[in-house]
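sorry for the late reply, my laptop died twice this morning and i had to redo everyting from scratch. anyway the thing you sent over, i finally got around to it. pasting the sequence first so we're on the same page, its 139 residues, then the predicted structure underneath. double check i copied it right bc i was rushing
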Amino acid sequence: MPSFGLQHVTQAIISSFREEEFEVSLEKLQSIFPDATIVAALDLVDRGNVIKYTTAWGRCHYEVLGSTATYTVFPSLFPSTSVSSYCTCPAFAFSVLMAESHLMCKHVLASCLAEQLSRCVERPISDEELVAKMAGNVY
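ok and here's the structure:
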């Protein structure tokens, strides 16, 4: 699993991402992520495929509309865990959890970048709807 230091650096790079300084921000991302992951994540953001559901009490739930399915994304888990994010896509299970060759999948990166750039499609959701949505995504 990635070290906590690398996870911290990755989060700092994502947190410093700015559209006004796109080239510099992109170079920083390229120091951590493969180009294909960055391009795919930015494409998801540009297409408006990152949906952020927010309850009246402030709980957020992210979904990313992928090319073949909609994935539930948890962009930031507890910092004390060995995995700092989670996605329900097969690439996350293989590349992040099993092979440990990536820090995150394109869906998690897209969620983090969309949040940082205020580019999430925001939708309110009731507590009951959130529970139903979460229950439908249990694997």
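DSSP finds six helices and five strands in the chain.
thats about all i looked at so far, will dig more tmrw
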